[in-house]
User: Fold this.
Amino acid sequence: MTDLSQLMQLSQKLQAKMAELQENLESKSITASSGGGMVTVTVDGKGHARRIQIDPTCVDSRDVEMLEDLVLAAISEAQNKAQSEYEAEMRNATGGLPMNIPGLPKLF
Assistant:
């Protein structure tokens, strides 16, 4: 019966760590750029875009498609960085337990 009690305590600790992790993700800021810094995107720890900066020199009304591609690339890179940081935090919080445990939040 002690093993079950220890498992419950471990579960409660894990839940507390997960709640803290969720709160911390909101305040994280992850930045990525494309086009040699022409477009820079900042996302939160959950991968939601919070800011986009565009160098005015890359704004060309004759080549909007290039700017769209740069914005998309920067957003994708920032989201990938956010996902990697999230997974690292999850591994740290769970002590290396597998990421696909039923009941644990999955953001990506």
Summary: The mean pLDDT is 84.
